[in-house]
Amino acid sequence: MLTYVVRRIGWAVLVLVVVSMLTFLLGYLVPADPARVIAGPNAPQFVVNTIRRQLGLNLPLYDQYLRFFGHAVTGNFGRSYINQEEVLPTILQRFPYTALLAACGLAVEFLIGVTIGIVAAVRRRTAWEGISVGLVVLGLGLPSFWLGLILLFLLGYDLPIFPLGGYHGFVSVILPAFAVGIPGAAAYVRVTRSSMLEVLSDDYIRTARAKGLSEATVIVRHALRVALKPVVTMLGLDLGYFLGGVLVVEEVFGWPGIGTLAWQAILNDDLPMIMGTVMFAAFLIVVANILIDIAYMVVDPRVNLARPTYA
Amino acid sequence: MRLLSTLRRPATYVAAAGLTLAMVGGSAAAHGAVKRAIPNGGTATVTFQSDFNTLDPALSTDVYSNSVIHALFVNLVEFEPGGKIVPWAASSWTVAPNGLTYTFHIKPGIQFTDGEPVNAQAFAYGIERVLNPATKSPGSNYFLDVVGAPQFAAGKAKTVSGISTPNASTIVFHLIKPERVFIDYVGLQYGDAVPAKAVTKEGANFAHQPVGDGPFMLQTWVPGQKLVIVKNPKYFDKAQAAHLNSVVFQIGGQSEVSLLKAEQGQVDVLGDLIPPADFASVDSNPKWKPYVNLDPIAADEFIYFDEGKAPFNNMDVREAAYWAIDQSRILQLVAGQGAPTGQIIPPGVPGHDSSIPNTFKQNVALAKQLLVKAGYKAGTGPAATFWVFNTAPGPVLAQAIQQELDQVGFKITIKSVPFSTLVSQITQIPNVQFGIIGWVSQYPDPVSSISSMFETARIKAGTDLADYNNAAVNAQLVKADALAINKAVPLYEAAQKTILSNYPWVPLYNQVEANFVNPRLGGFSQDDSYWFDYANWYIK
Prior knowledge:
The complex is a heterodimer of chains A (about 300) and B (about 550).
Chain A: H1 2-29, H2 34-39, H3 45-54, H4 61-72, H5 87-122, H6 127-141, H7 144-158, H8 174-200, H9 203-210, H10 215-227, H11 229-243, H12 247-253, H13 258-267, H14 271-299
Chain B: E1 2-3, E2 7-8, E3 43-48, H1 63-72, E4 77-79, E5 85-87, E6 90-95, E7 101-106, H2 120-131, H3 149-153, E8 163-167, E9 170-174, H4 182-185, H5 196-202, E10 216-222, E11 226-231, E12 246-251, H6 255-263, E13 269-270, H7 276-283, E14 292-305, H8 315-324, H9 327-333, E15 338-340, H10 364-373, E16 383-389, H11 394-408, E17 411-417, H12 419-426, E18 434-440, H13 446-454, H14 457-461, H15 471-482, H16 485-501, E19 505-516, E20 521-522, E21 526-527, E22 531-532, E23 538-539
Parallel strand pairs in B: 3-12, 3-13, 16-17, 16-18
Antiparallel strand pairs in B: 1-2, 4-5, 6-7, 7-9, 8-9, 10-11, 11-12, 14-18, 14-19, 15-19, 20-23, 21-22
Helix pairs in contact in B: 8-10, 13-15, 15-16
């Protein structure tokens, strides 16, 4: 296990380095001059040149990247070109809001998706299966930003039950969590249903029923634990993705998370903040993947990802 | 889309230097005006889609940040509605007859909220800090005509020799050349006094933990969420103190959602204005009509052509493009948030010429004839790329303009880009053939409206978007810049007529700011210098 973890961490570092290089290169290729943006359109050229020198923007690309990398490994992502804030503390200050939204969004995805998926699997060839399929199609087709605006209008404006965006305590997270979770739940319905159908046809389930166990016990205690394995994988991937900032939903709801921070950085060509938010998101996704794989091995001893398998 | 005199983008307005701003419209009294008996107390709430970039006067370029900075800091002088410059921290000032020396006398008893005195040294420190290359201030160019400033800004001198403080209540500026607008420059945010001790202690964090001397002080700033300013009990002018106890800024969220909040009464003012797509429905709704506040401002929206590169180096091509445009349709697309104009200098700015018609009628036949005269086959024309900000109403206007130009034979490609990219591109002369942009004057002088856009030296500076290079006009403008305004106006008027006859621009409209303001709020107005003047607001 330890060897596996160390190997995975090694690969994770390589992934992060490649992500940083690609992001840096893309930022460099954008036809905008950060020194000019900082100096303003009326500043004389020598002021722009001075700023360019101060920020190291006159150095060759590889030199700029190496300077960035050298500081980044110590946790120093520099300061925002636009507001001079330190990048990493700014991201960490926004992170709890994104984490809250991510956790609640995942809960919505899981609870709605898994519940409907189980019902669809257990109630095959009934109206329940038809309803669940319909909900999947609807959920997959709903853009989260549209759903967010509809929820805000109906439940924040028409019936003012929830706040109209922003963070005003825990009640503020409910609507954005549903805006994130409902489209995602559709995928969980499909995976849960197909996984449950597979498990329910296994011999050990037949044995459990033959022993006289109640259907509820068969489903919850025997089938679900195995059927949820792919769902756990999806949860892990979604966790990493959400923790990097659900940009669209955060923008719609004015949620003060990393997503809105990243969006403003992109609009302003604020390369230090872009690098910081992208690297932070990449780090979380990589860590989430590693943790999910380790969790697999802990939960199911039959799974040993450290040992290569042969066909 | 507004360029800060400023370039101005719809979602985030950037105030740029150099443009003269005539404040027109509005009903609020400035600090220098006589105040009625106005109730004190209460809190007003304002929404902004984007967070403030900074509250450091030396670093601010956007109008949102400037509006709060104006509430937190005091200048030597202030702009009143209508363009008058009045004393603020200065009790008076004199200008030497040769225009090379400005002497300001500062009122006693002004202090920052940390107790540090606001005196001549504080103003000198603030302006030197703007010029200091380490500050990376976008406002340094405003003070480069002070003796010794270019050397200091280039890092070749330790102080600015042209700023002197013979005593604590007197500050003197010696200029390299006469500059009528220097008095305007000291009224901008870059002319604020700042406390040296707090700046030294906070360093870069001063931008988020400012210590000021204005009618308000910062209480709290939760980045991305909320900023609150409260009445400053130490403000030096009790008669002109703020009326509100506090102003709460709610940050983030879509502008359409902010409008819903305003309709529910949760918000008093939309910092980002009424979303263009919602303006018609709001304005025509009898329930919301009393909430709609229209303030014309000294800002131009125009199409510019780069005369230095093909195809617009040919005047016939520029004129053809001019006559192909349907100005009335453009105004329809901005849904009444623009007043038609046919000239460069906006209404309210000295030099605005009422003899120039505000409207022009599309003439497709003439446009086609001009293209033939330029050497193109009948019904054809050149290909060109049209640059525009990618926020409303830019893309919509760009599509309309593309259709109108394609109709006469042009082949137009639209390049819709974020603000930062556009600023970089348009200030690099060879890069942009033509585009549409807005230009806001931040102070009431024609230097900001016309000189900064058409003097030859501005080509290299990047603000002469048309790459306009006319020696006679340049001489007129440079001469006018140094004269008293009443003598300068005829020169500006003559220069403007000549410029317009060369078709470097298609002037479209002057911007009208459409806001949604809760009727309980009094003293509201909107202008180009300060965007909002929170010290004038009160709860009725």
